[in-house]
Amino acid sequence: MPPDFFKRVKLPLPSLPEQRRIVESLRHVAPQPFRSAIDQAKRLQSALITEALSGRLTATWREQHAQALAEAARERDARLGAPAPRVTVRITKHAPAERRTDLARPRRQAVIEQLSSFQHAVWNTLRFEWRGAVLADDPAAFEEFCTSPQTAWRLEGFAAGREQVRRALDQLAAMGLIRKVSLPRPDPTTGRTEYLTAFRPLREAEYGNRPEEDTALADAERLGRELERRRAPEAR
Fold first, then answer.
1. pLDDT (tens digit per residue) in 25-74
2. Is residue 125 part of a domain?
3. How many domains does the chain have?
């Protein structure tokens, strides 16, 4: 309900003991199912709008009621005094555009063709805009990956949250399209080393015919340089 609804409508309140009983009952209700339901409703709403605007939502209905629609159109034209036009319909099937991949592997290409638009946008953001390992366990780095206008412009039209982007990265890694790695980060205060989850694009071999083997040491060196770069402004 919008907030002004309660300003215009007077609602009877239960007695104070009954109010306390309701509050106590609500304390035992887990909020996670409601959040999951709200997230799912948002995703379904976005998909429904896409289907409606593209015409796919009513395509089956139009096919089933083609005769009734034609009769309604003739009746409309007769009442408007316009002659019924003779229309020739030509149906052309358009194949979806091929999605480019840098790795010449037919099976990998088949996987790429099955990606959703959102997964494809996340994949291209990591490959072409970010161009390196994104630290999913570092809130500042992951926030920049998801929202920076310079790198995340592909994700703006999806209104996706951080969890959805993280889930898409996990799915891409499971499909073998990107690499999920653990990178070490020393803690100068405790002297201990913690490991952060990161995602990076696959690297090509010299001849581009297969992905390069995992180079965790090179990733660790890049991480060290990145953390030093981030600490430099704080030191100043």
1. 877 776 677 677 777 777 777 777 776 666 666 777 778 878 887 888 78
2. yes
3. 1
